[in-house]
Amino acid sequence: MTTSTPAVRVARLSKSYGDFDAVSDISFDILPGETFALLGPNGAGKSSTIEILEGYRDRSEGDITVLGVDPQHGGLDWKARIGIVLQSSGESGNATVVEQLRHFAGLYPNPRPVDEVIAAVGLESKAKTRIHKLSGGQQRRVDVALGIIGRPELLFLDEPTTGFDPEARHQFWDLIRSLKAEGTTILLTTHNLDEAAELSDRAGIIVGGQLIDIGAIGELGGPAARTPMVRWRDPSGARHETRTDSPARLVAELAADAGGEPAELQVIRPSLEDIYLGLVRRHAAATSNPENAEVLA
Amino acid sequence: MSSTLSPQPVRARTARHGILSLGLSRIGFEIKLYFRSTDTVFFTFLFPFIMLGIFTAAFSAQGNIGTNPDGSGGISVGAYYLPGMLAAGMLLSGLQNLAIDIAGEKGDGTLKRLGGTPLSPLSYFIGKIGQVLVTGILQAVLLLIVARFVFNIALPTDPEKWLTFAWVFLLGVITCAFLGIALSALPRSGRSASAVVIPIVLVLQFISGVYLQFNALPEWMQNIAGLFPLKWMAQGMRAVFLPETFAAQEQNGAWELGLVALALLIWLVVGLVGSRLSFRWIRKDA
Q1: Do residue A282 and residue A207 come from a single domain?
Q2: Residues A245 and A169 in one domain
Q3: What are the φ/ψ torsions at residue A153 (nearest 5 degrees)?
Q4: CA dist A282 → A272, A288, A289, A294, B60 (Å)
């Protein structure tokens, strides 16, 4: 096997529940060592996609390999190579953090040291606490710890930082970076676009079960979506907003015209969140009024 | 807090652990969690003790059961109810315990999480059956100790009786464990599990000679009870702990240990097939 063989290969994946098409004709690859984010609104088909890749659900159509194996037939050896952080866990948790991790470590052939993982998710002081007594964010950290304890080659993270405080989120980002540095391939879904921008190399955006854009984090939405925006208020009090590739020149002109500082001046480079929202809105407008699709696209 | 992890060792991936060794490691974990669950300890583990205490306290004043016409002989109420309580313990430790436990684990995501790890369902089953065996044996032994030393009930001395006890107990408790795994598929959610399982268990106990004297029940009720395993477990236990003279009170005037074995074996097969067909890590969509 060469390193260019994708860790995850999804070709023309579709999934329907009765009459409802949750996922329609999605294709993407994830390369070994890459961190790939799946973004999209609630109910867009992200979790269906990720659960099909994890082997929990069967697909309706398409071809998939995950670490070279069809997840519908993934055996125990295959499961030993992946790590899963599910979207939600409501485990009653009568075990303590260290007991739970020690037990799960025992299920894998080559686990990470338990103490090290507890430290990595910042739960040293809670190691001997029963899981049901932890806060929601702390329980989520246990989920993350259980996902990485088996030293996975491929890690699925389904909205991993839900309930994290900002500090815990930054600790989590550091942890993911160290997993990346080790060569772990990661598939991430998140509603936190800063998180996607911080962690992932590439992202795909799913809306209504369709992949509407895919690319490097710095290239999503195309160059037009990244055009900087200048905002200001003119002396009459009216607000202005102009997109331009040469914001410095516009600002200089404004300053010259105003004979000083333009009021409330801002130069904004669209964040991933701005670009994402733009793409989702355009898709929604295009699908609700198909005649406009070409114009808007 | 350190967010760095030690890098992947150069050595190749070692082989996965065997199904049996993982199953054995599950047993210890399962037993620990069993005794940490207050609900389980009270309604499964201690329940037969409480019922034995209540029956003894409530009915002792009415004198012995099975006395001679002149009022002599017979056995105490506690002695009479002990076999039924042992049978109830087997049903609770196996069927009620696992049906509620596994339905709960399905509901709260425990099974889904385990399904994503290299744990075979067989290892999971070994863990559950082992938990039932260990807690069931502990319950029975404690029940016998309490019966002997607190309620002053004479226990059999004939080794043959204890051999009967051993096979009725093991066969019954393992059958109940598999029936519990199969029944865990019935509740629609973890929360509704107790509401679905406990009435079944309760009705069986009333018609099978656990709470009510079996020979005092109408024939049709005895016949219905005969379709279910608890009646046979209770009958097997009566054969061990009641005097031979009580055999005449059985439905057919004998202990019928062969039929006890046959009925339990049939239910064991039902439980095995039901477990095999109904068990899923998650409720899969069509």
Answers
A1: no
A2: no
A3: -80, -30
A4: 15, 10, 11, 11, 82
Select the more confidently predicted residue: A265 or A1. A265
Pairwise CB contact (< 8 Å): B109 & A57:
no
Is residue A2 included in any domain, yes or no?
Answer: no
Residues A200 and A281 in one domain: no
In a domain, A111, yes or no: yes
Could A77 and B16 be called an inter-chain contact, meaning their C-beta atoms sit closer than 8 Å? yes
Show which residues on chain B lie within 8 Å of chain A, measured between beta carbons: 1-9, 13-17, 22, 25, 29, 32-33, 36-37, 104, 107-110, 112-113, 115-120, 281-282, 284-286
Q: How do residues B100-112 score in pLDDT, each as one tens digit? A: 999 999 988 899 9
| Closest Cα in chain B, distance from residue A213 (Å) | 28
Same domain, A115 and A207: yes
Which of A218, A246, A270 is where one domain is finished? A218
Alpha-carbon span A278 to B146, nearest angstrom: 73
Which residue would you say has higher pLDDT here, A227 or A185?
A: A185
Question: Mutate which of A15, A56, A58 to test chain B, going by most B C-beta atoms within 10 A?
Answer: A56
Instruction: Find the residue in A nearest to B101 (Cα).
Output: A92
- Which chain A residues are within 8 Å of B282, Cβ to Cβ? 56
Question: What is the reported pLDDT for B57?
Answer: 86
Residues of A in contact with B25 (CB under 8 A): 103, 106
Closest partner residue to B7 among A106, A109, A182, by Cβ? A182
Reading phi first (left if > 0) and then psi (alpha if -120 to 50, else beta), residue A264 is in: left
Contacts of B14 in chain A (CB under 8 A): 109-110
Section B146-168 average pLDDT: 94
Boundary of a domain, candidates A174, A198, A218: A218
Average pLDDT over residues B241-250: 90
Q: What number is the average pLDDT over the span A186-191? A: 94
Distance CA B235, CA B242 (A): 10
SS3 A67: coil
Residue with tokens 């209504």: A208
Range of the domain at A213: 8-218
Cβ B116–A84 below 8 Å, yes or no?
yes
Contacts of B38 in chain A (CB under 8 A): none
> What is the arithmetic mean of pLDDT over B253-257?
91
Share of residues in chain B with pLDDT > 70 (%) = 94
For the entire predicted model, the pTM comes to: 0.87
* pLDDT tops 60 at residue B82: yes
Is A120's CB within 8 Å of B3's CB? yes
> Is the same domain home to A239 and A206?
no
The answer to whether the CB atoms of A89 and B109 lie below 8 A apart is yes
Q: Residues A2-15: what's their mean pLDDT?
A: 86
Q: Any idea what the CATH number is for the domain that residue A117 is in?
A: 3.40.50.300
* Chain A contact set for B1 (CB, 8 A): 119, 122, 124, 171
Contact A183 B120 (CB under 8 A): no
Q: What are phi and psi of A216, to 5 degrees?
A: -60, 150
Q: Tell if the CB–CB gap between B5 and A117 is shorter than 8 Å.
A: yes
Total number of domains in chain A: 2
Task: List, as own/partner pairs, every contact residues B152-157 make where C-beta atoms lie below 8 angstroms and the sequence separation is at least 24, other chains included.
Answer: B152/B76, B152/B78, B153/B76, B153/B78, B153/B79, B153/B82, B154/B79, B155/B241, B156/B240, B156/B241
